[in-house]
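Protocol step 4 of 6: structure prediction from sequence.
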Amino acid sequence: MNKKSLVTIQILDLFGCPISKAQYEVKNQRTGQVIAAGATNASGCIVEISRDKGTALDVYIKSMFNGLMVKVQSFVMSRDRMLVKITSPKVMIDLKTLLNQGGNGQYKRKTHVVKKDETLFEIAQKNHTTVRALECLNKIDDPNKIIVGQVIKLPVNIPATGNNSHQEKAKQTTQQRTQPSASSTKTKAPQTPPVRPSSTTPQKKQEEGIFGANFGSKVLDQVNELYEEGKKTLNEATNAASKILTVDDRSQEGGTPKADAPNLCKTNPQCISSGKSELIREVNIRLAGFGGALPTDEFTELTAKCIKQFQRDYMGVPETGKICGSVLVALDKFYEEYPVAGFMGKAACNCGKCSGFGNGNMGIPSGSNKANEYPGLHRSLIWILKAINFYLKNEFKEKKIEVAYIESGYRCIENNKKHGRATVNHMGLALDIHFNKDGKRTREVNDMEFIRKEIMIKKMGASENRELNKIYLEPKVFNSGAQGATTWVHFDVTKFSTIYFNGNIFQKTIVELNGVKMLALVNTMKAPSVLSCGGGVSTPKLHDTIMDELVLSNDDIIDIMKVTETEVIKFKTEKYFTDQAAGVVDTIMNRAKSGVWGNSVRSVVNADRQFSKITGPKSLDPYGSVEKMPISHVSIRIRNFVNNYLIERANGKLSIIGENLNYANKYYSDAKNRKAWVDKFHDEAVKKGMILGNGTAIHAHGTTTELRNKMPKPFKIVLPQDFKGI
């Protein structure tokens, strides 16, 4: 019997096109040893790998966003011959400029010549585009470094043709669900020929991209032929799937011709431009900060306007004003790039007499108004805050202003009584935000006015007058002459119609305020066709062969929070903080599965001299055990992050450090340890992109030589039932 297995692995993009020159690593899952590394060939394939059957492999691809090697698939070499196709969350589009000079047409060259004292931002404004789009189109690394006479290419607006209406599944007719669009043209890449099972072997469901049926010795030759034929098909599919039609586009004034790539929505018009559904509502909620979208389940003219603004300002692509796969992917990317966990320390009421979000009292007289204690914060508030953060960090980054934190969030009726207030909008409908400038709190009225006028009024349609269905801004001076918001920015949604206060719009935890990922929502609604319009990507899932689990209790989660609080540097830069915190959380869980420090979270975190402030040397004044550390010593920032991150891990998010068990900081290690192992460990972490943090405040992650055979196999995280956070 053959004990060896031979595998060919192909990396595909979202549209099924092979990705060439993708940097990969293939590791032995048990030992962590790299057994193949390099760049994929023109067919997106890596070198053939031969190993003993039963060998588990992990496939890593270099991320296009942060340069780290990210694990994208795990599988077991269980057959004599295997073909494995892995879809990467990338899109590979190869556009070739046509050199046919042709005759002059009506098209005028879309370029701009830089003049003296012009900035890229001014050029973008004059030409109704964005700095982000110009940077991408012209490959500009630094928008502040453009020179007089430089020719700046301007984007061409190519509208999509899809105009589908989206309704809840229960409202659709059978005909609507099954009838193909008349304007849709679908081309399928060649498929690997199916294998007919033997008459004595029950047919088994095949894993996607893998020959998963069990074959008898009589058909071994057939399997080998299919393997070779499958490899050939992979190569042939490259030519069939990667071609994109181009259209001649002439300049009226002569010069270099242009080439337009047809908008991908034209070939598969699944774009949504009308209808009523929860998907549309969720898009509207998340676009509150991009034009003032209202949280309705109906696709309105305002919805289209806000989508266009999001496409223009965040995505840097031609505006369509329609919901498609690329918009949903971008919304999920925006979700991750602009977290709010670090701002939420004072989001809940601190009166001590309510749950943090009132006691449910409604219609209570308060001054000239009636107070309603809504059951949480209005979700639109959080997405407005994310958009403020985005605009400050991008279009207006030269101002060097950034969101610091929520100074005042929920204030219940008891809180009002305690402070002699009669206001009612802070009961779930308002936020007061403080800002930093050059890293320090700014109280400058001019800074607050800039945020109100240039961002919230111009970008979000907000108003300093109370207008129906508009975001309200408290001015620096009220019409009465009384002082308003001078050193902070107050915004609220009190004037939204009451229909926008229904359902699940009020939430308490960060996870619930953010909402689920758009792609997960699409999959839940069983309406994935929209993802094909513009390149939707499915949320990565743990491989079917991963059967192991780590079940966490509430006490385990509290222990993880405590240790993370003592180990992580409280960076002001959110990415440094979240990456380092994720590394600590993942290390604790990996150790619990390894068994080296015991088989529970409690035994891991109480292991002698492993976490310095828990059971470290006496010179560090440790708590002595995790039980002795009060939960009150855990900051809101850490608590919120751990809650959010564990829920994401339970939903399939991969560990940021793989299955590694150790981390160290050479800048704070003694000379003996540095020489013995830390320096070498650090250098290996640098090569693998496993340095989390910044400057000397870093954690270098990896696994020491003697523990590599103890690294756990990939495992699922199981949280307490209906876990929403602690």
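Step 5 (inspection) to follow. The two ends are 54 Å apart (CA to CA).
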